[in-house]
Amino acid sequence: MGHPPGLWAYRLDRERAVLGGALSNGGNLLRWIWETTGTERGDAATAEAAALPPDTTGLTFLPLLAGERSPGWYDDATAIIAGLTLATAASHLIRSGMESVAYRLAAVYDALRPLAAPDHEIVVSGGAVLGLPSWLQIIADTLGHSLTALAPDHETTARGAALMAACGAQILPALDDAFDVAANATLYAPDLANHERYRAGRDRQARLEQTLLPTGEFV
Q1: pTM of this prediction?
Q2: Which domains does the chain possess?
């Protein structure tokens, strides 16, 4: 089964496969920023970061502290923060960290989007991002697509496994109507003006990436 470079594919059964990408950054990246700057999720610096306009920190952040998985699968890649000055504040690091992860998600989304239905839905789970509505909005704006954020206690992986097992045992006839996630979910609609601003940030991150690996192994 062929699929776009940089993605993974898991065969579920004879008819279905799961296609996607994996990142080595996210909640761990923000935790590192908070610990390094002496800040935390609920403090003034994080609130200031959330209030900053898109792509205004002056920083370009390649958030590969733990190497890179999708789309480059370059385990030895490292992080870079370019643009640091004496005026750089903790809030700038937090905001640029959130934006940088959104840019990595957008690279995976770009690879998946041609394979998705025109009316596809993006569903978000995971405690790190669900606890920061500002981050969810950054991601929606960067992708240029709405997000459906599930309740923090919604066990998506376990639910998916249970649904597949139910279909395999013919307890459930089809998956088509089994993924209604509207209950207790929050919709984040993209701001398309912000989407254009984030394009510039994505372009700078891509150029920094090429500087790190000029051979083009990791694109």
Answers
A1: 0.88
A2: 8-150+185-212 (3.30.420.40)
